[in-house]
Amino acid sequence: MKVLTMYLPQFHRVEENDLWWGEGFTDWVSARNAKPLFEGHYQPHVPLNGNYYDLLDKNTMRWQADLMRRYEVDGACMYHYWFKDGKRILEKPAENLLGWKDIQMPFCFCWANPAWARSWSGFRDADVWSSLYERQGAQKGSGILLEQKYGGRRQWKEHFEYLLPFFLDSRYVKMEGKPLFMIYHVSDIPCLGEMLECWRTWAGEAGLPGLYVIGARCSEHKEGLDAQIFLEPAHGRQGGTAVTYQAVWKNILQEKRGNLQTFFSGFTGYDDTPRQGRAGTVIEGSEPELFGEFLAELMAKNAANGSEIVFLNAWNEWGEGMHLEPDERFGTGYLEKISYAKAVFTERKSKYTSDWKEEEQTNGVMKRLGKAERYLDLMDQWMRLRERKIRLADCLTRAGVRSVAIYGWSIFGRHLLWELAEDGIQIVGIIDRQKDRLHVEYPVYLPTESLPKFDAMLVASWYFFDEIRAMFADRNYHLLSLETMIREAR
Length: 490
Known about the structure:
Layout: E1 2-7, H1 15-21, H2 27-33, H3 58-70, E2 75-80, H4 92-99, E3 107-111, E4 116-117, E5 144-146, H5 153-168, E6 174-175, E7 178-183, H6 192-205, E8 212-216, E9 227-230, E10 242-244, H7 245-254, E11 261-264, E12 266-267, E13 270-271, H8 273-276, E14 282-284, H9 288-304, E15 309-313, H10 333-344, H11 349-387, H12 392-398, E16 403-407, H13 411-422, E17 426-431, E18 444-445, E19 456-459, H14 465-471, E20 479-481, H15 482-489
Parallel strand pairs: 1-2, 1-15, 2-3, 3-7, 7-8, 8-9, 9-11, 10-14, 12-15, 16-17, 16-19, 17-18, 19-20
Antiparallel strand pairs: 4-5, 6-7, 13-14
Helix pairs in contact: 5-6, 7-9, 9-10, 9-11, 11-15
């Protein structure tokens, strides 16, 4: 079981932070100036021996790498910031590490893709660094500091070419031989599937076996991903409230996996009042002993789910009270619990394995029910078209389609063939993996066989349209999904 820690590169001066938040601003400013807001509130968090480091100092990164190795942390998942038109910020620590080959710090990237904005901007899903350091009376313009636009192939190529030297580095973390790349807010990227398809093509051209892409905050937007991750803490984080460490971890350990391969993550603690003041959230009661026990459970849960990596928040989020790096209160206490968890987690794996079996059965039933509901809904829409005398053949003819092949001899395929043949569309054949089992009056072809000429292939097995389109990607056919045809005909 490997442990990768989220890593914040905000501990060095940049021109933009000086301009926006005041000269010399880094996250150390928030951490240093933190105040306890109630009795027993642990603030400020002071790094052990007052080590307010600068990430541009090579000795700092060497110290971090040595500390990781000593306490069995297997690498850093560094936040990577890339905005509209290739604008970068906080990129120097990773670029320096790329050049410092003698520092043995395994690493990968998490693209923190949301825009940056002022706290008063009202801009949805943007990163707001520190409402406490907003300048009074400075509410001018939109409040957007760094705009995010994803562009097209040219912009995607520029981004990929920047990342490629990192992907090729021997220290870059791989999954199945592929560079591991996390995306912080997948649902914000409308072009996700097409962009990742291009990136994988370019990765292959560069000699890589592909990319392994993990998405966080996916919602239903998962096209092109290899896996998803629940980045914690994600429960109970309403501003101005306090929740308990045990309660949040209980939710993490009860989290259900989705249809994709799922990584369950953990955290050391959380308190963002150094950045947000009384509007912040405090997760109370975190301490190394509890962390060690919860981490062992988390490793067992991931192992039962076939995941060999646990992601932890965080290595150095000092402005959010979330750090494995040692502090004056607990020393190296959190770090010491990593080796403990690695030693004992296998003893706890079985209880999560039985949970997965039950969950898989439930998920299978729900998936079949969902598919049946979609089938029924589409058939209903098709019959409504016929009631209104709207024929699919008319839609095809207007698009210049006069001859078709039908993919999939399902219920939909039979109804489609009957309607189109009745309306004078030429059916050149049926394409189906079960060729030998079909007995129809039309020619039947396997997908791998040479096919006759046609204007369009109509995919009656529309539920699997993406897979079918990928199968014919190199054969230059015009594919139409029956689902799309029916919905657009309305």
